[in-house]
Amino acid sequence: MRGLRYAFVLTATAFMPLAGQRPLTVTGIQSLTFGTLLPGMPSVVSRTDAVKSGRFDLGGPHDTQGQVTFTLPSVLTGPAGATLPLSFGGSDAGYSQSQNIGSQVGFDPNQPFLITFSGQGRGSIFLGGTARPAPIQRAGSYTGTITLNLTAFP
Amino acid sequence: MYTASKAAVATLVLALVAAASVRAQGVNGSITATATVQSPITVAGAQNLAFGNVFPGVAKTVAYSDATNGGHFDVTGQASTPVTYSFALPTNLTSSGNNLPIGSWTGYVNGANSTSGGSAITPSATPAGASLSAGGTLFFFVGATVTPANNLPAGSYTGTVTLTVSY
Q1: Are the beta carbons of A37 and B38 separated by less than 8 Å?
Q2: Does residue A5 form part of some domain?
Q3: Exposed, middle or buried by CB within 10 Å (0-12, 13-18, 19+), for A65?
C-alpha cells in the first residue's frame, strides 16, 4: 500500500511540468508573397520584409526549447498545373523570441532548428525565399503551402 | 513481499503512463506562398512611317490614320493591365550626312487595331499611360511631317522611331 502511494506520487510529479503552462501552438500569420513577377526574372523576398515575408507565431511553455522543421514546396502551382520553381537559402528563415521582425536569428529552413520560447511562452518565425519564373513561364496566379512543424521536449 | 511486488508493478505501469504523457509533443501550422506571373510585354514595329517621294521645298505630312503610310506598333502583354509608354523620335531623317527635318508628330493609341475608338496622343519622350485591352493588346499609330529644304540633295532618307512600353 505504501508502494502504491509512492507510485502515485511519482506519476503526479511527472505530470506536474505540463500543468498551468501555455499549450504548444503554431499559427500561420502571414503568407509569403512574391507579388507580380515577369517571366525570366527571379524575385527574392527577404525574411525581414514586413509586408512580403511569411510569418508563423509559436506558443509553448515559457523558457523551454522546441525544434522547428519546415515542409517546404519546391514549386508553386499555377494555371493548368504549371509550376514555378521556389527555393529557400541557408538564412531564409529567422526566429525572434520577442516576435519582432527586426530582431531575428537567421537559420536554414531546410534544417531542423532549436528555438527557446520567451518568458511569456511565445516566439515568431519569419520566412523569405526566391521564386524563379522561367523565361516562358505561363502567366497567372501560383500558390503553394508551407508547413511549420514544432516539436517540444518537456 | 507479495504486496511489495504489486506495488512495484503498479509503480512501473504508472511510471510508463507518466513517461508517455511527457513524451515530445508536436504541432504544426501552415501558410501559403503566392506569386502572380504577368505576360511579358512585346512591342513589334508592324509598319514603317513612309513619306514616299518628297520634293525640295515642299513639306509632306503622313497622318497616323493613313493605313498605307502611317507608322504602326503592335504591343502585347498582360490583359487589362496599365502600362507606361514613351517614344524616342528623330528630329531628322538622314542620308549620307544630309538632314531632312521631321516633326509635328501625331499619334493614336487603341486597344483594338483601329484608328477609331481609341485616343489621340502626341508622341514624345515624356512617359504617358495607357492600358492593355482585355485581350492583352495595344496598338500605336504614328504620323509626322517632313520639311525638305529647298536645296536638299536627292537620296533615300531614313530615321528610327522607337516605342518603349513597360508595366
Answers
A1: yes
A2: no
A3: middle
